[in-house]
Amino acid sequence: MDRMEQLRTLLEQSPKDSFLRHALALELQKTGEDGAAIRQLESLLTDDPGYVGSYYQLGKLLEKTGDEQGAIRWYEQGMKQARAAGESRAYNELQSALEELTF
Fold first, then answer.
1. 10, 4, 97, 3: which is closest to 52 by C-alpha?
2. Domains of the chain in sequence order
3. pLDDT recorded at residue 77
4. 8 Å CB contact between 63 and 38
5. 81, 58 Cβ separation under 8 angstroms
6. C-alpha distances in angstroms, 34 versus 11, 17, 59, 61?
């Protein structure tokens, strides 16, 4: 069983597990399934907006697929969540990604 199959099996048992959902999105991205990875991350962040690490990954995927406005929107939302959670490192990473994209 490959990693993606393992993650899907685990998600059947725990469908709202944010760590597993994030890991599946990364695996989808590795196999070139960017659209599926984006949908996975958007769904994760809709259900668990406090899962701060996923905002950066989603923003970068949206940039890669040419959706700069979507990337900006998710970076900004991630910065708000990171600030609220007191996660300064995540906030700084998101801010840097946003600045690289907009300046």
1. 97
2. 3-102 (1.25.40.10)
3. 98
4. no
5. no
6. 19, 21, 12, 7
In sequence order, which residues have a C-beta less than 8 Å from that of residue 5 and are 6 or more positions away?
Answer: none
End-to-end CA distance of the chain: 44
Instruction: Name the amino acid, one letter, at 74.
Output: W
Q: pTM, whole model, 2 decimals?
A: 0.94
Cα 85–chain centre separation: 17
**Contact in structure between 83 and 98 (CB atoms under 8 Å):** no
Task: Look at phi and psi of residue 61 and say left if phi exceeds 0, alpha if psi is from -120 to 50, else beta.
Answer: alpha
**Which stretches of the chain drop beneath a pLDDT of 50?**
none
